[in-house]
Design goal:
It contains 17 helices and 15 strands. With 431 residues, it is an alpha/beta fold. Among the domains are: 120 residues, P-loop containing nucleotide triphosphate hydrolases (Rossmann fold); 91 residues, no CATH class. Strand 11 and strand 12 form a beta hairpin. InterPro entries: AAA_14, DUF4143, P-loop_NTPase.
Length: 431
């Protein structure tokens, strides 16, 4: 298994925790010369395996109860190819590899052994994970209750506001859980941002590439939540090709996501790469810190009022991504196909054979014009809206007089979306 994820999202920590399930555990960090050397001087797999066990003073036996964790595997390109031998020669042995993908982008010698490796992606902590980390056991239990009882709403909304403020980076969540001091988090945000910028300095192949990617990182937080153009990105003089390459590099490193729109209301999902993508960054808490809106978030009664609604839309996208562990899955949204049209639905959620539109917006249901435009074209009658209110189902009539059902969910229930759509479907069938 290869675990992907941006720096500092907890790849090493989660594998170390998982290793407690095994009687024998071998940890290798290929940034360390003594751990790197056996892979660099690889001659045959049998010798490599014996060397790894010998150097860690572990007996080469009972492979079915042994876990090997190869961290920072991108430091030795050949080590990735050697994963195939673990798969073929020792099928009972559990092997996990992880690394910061940003470094490997600039090394053309790195290739993954196709068909012999399973890939999983780790994202920043989700809201349920935040509740668990901060000891909010009662809130976490109620979060999973479908439908949610009214008495839990105000508490969960308040907790979600805090989660939306600080984000899901593990070091940030852990510090807040221990100290409950929001002002003390600034230095950690700074450290995270600097670490990403320093990565570029270290691994870019030339000074120009360094400058493009550093600019892309800095500007991405200010542009997050918007549909962007590569040319002149971040108020720069850089051309489309320069910024396109820089942003796609950051996307491969999982620091950002470029979300291209779907123009069809039905499956399959086929994003239109000729249209402007919307930009999603790694973590909403880092976005808030970078653009300086944390104080606004502290005092708001409705997250939809902050930063033109972009923060709450962004955290909903982050929560949707946190539910996914496959590197092949991402986010999608819808725009009307006509060039002059302005209809745009925030997200699309795939449920069975349906593409269910998902809007992030408070206010009266009559203001959901784009969602209604989508429903006029969709071959079903189910739509979702995340807002600051409580769980309820309402009936809406589109401009074309189509009767549809709208599931209104509070922001904090994004993680439970699958269970709620099933409940929603059952409730509609009762009508």
């Amino acid at each position: 298994m290869v675990i992907r994820g941006a720096r500092q999202v907890g790849k090493t920590t989660v594998v170390r925790q998982f290793s407690q399930e095994y009687p024998q555990f071998i940890y290798l960090n290929l940034e360390l010369p003594e751990d790197r050397e056996p892979f660099e001087h690889f001659s045959d797999f049998k010798t490599l395996l014996q060397t790894l066990f010998f150097r860690k003073n572990i007996l080469l036996k009972d492979l079915a109860h042994t876990l090997i964790f190869i961290d920072e595997i991108q430091e030795v390109p050949g080590a990735l190819q050697q994963l195939r031998y673990f798969y073929e020669e020792t099928p009972d042995l559990s092997v996990i590899a992880a690394g910061s993908m940003l470094e490997s982008l600039f090394n053309p010698d790195i290739n993954f052994p196709v068909g012999r490796v399973e890939y999983l992606v780790i994202h920043p902590a989700s809201f349920p994970e935040f509740l668990g980390a901060t000891g909010e056991k009662a809130a976490q239990q109620q979060l999973h209750t479908v439908p949610l009882p009214s008495f839990a709403h105000s508490t969960l909304l308040k907790l979600f506001r805090t989660y939306c403020l600080i984000g899901g980076m593990p070091e940030i969540v852990a510090h807040y859980a221990s100290h409950r001091d929001l002002t003390a988090l600034a230095s950690i945000y700074e450290s995270l941002l600097v670490s990403y910028l320093d990565d570029v300095e270290k691994y870019a192949t030339n000074p120009a590439q360094t400058e493009y990617i550093r600019h892309a990182i800095r500007s991405s937080f200010a542009e997050a939540g918007k549909r962007i153009k590569f040319h002149g990105f971040g108020h720069s003089s850089y051309r489309s090709r320069e910024m396109g390459e820089a942003l796609r590099s950051l996307e491969k490193a999982l620091l950002i996501h470029l979300i291209y729109p779907q123009t069809s209301p039905v499956l399959p999902l086929q994003p239109d790469l000729n249209k402007a993508p919307r930009l999603q960054v790694l973590d909403t808490g880092m976005l808030n810190y970078f653009v300086g809106i944390q104080q606004e978030l502290l005092g708001t009664s409705d997250l939809d009022n902050i930063y033109h609604g972009r923060v709450i839309e962004h955290i909903v996208g982050q929560e949707l991504l946190a539910r996914q562990y496959s590197a092949l899955h991402g986010l999608s949204f819808w725009v009307r196909e006509k060039s002059a049209a302005s209809a745009e639905v925030d997200y699309l959620y795939r449920y069975k054979e349906k593409l269910v539109p998902l809007e992030v917006k408070s206010g009266a249901t009559g203001t959901l014009r784009s969602l209604m435009a989508f429903m006029d074209l969709a071959p079903h009658n189910m739509a979702l809206r995340f807002y600051s209110g409580e769980v309820r189902i309402s009936t809406i009539t589109t401009p074309a007089k189509k009767k549809c059902y709208l599931l209104n969910l509070p922001y904090y229930l994004v993680s439970e979306i699958e269970d709620y759509i099933k409940w929603f479907e059952d409730e509609i069938n009762k009508k």
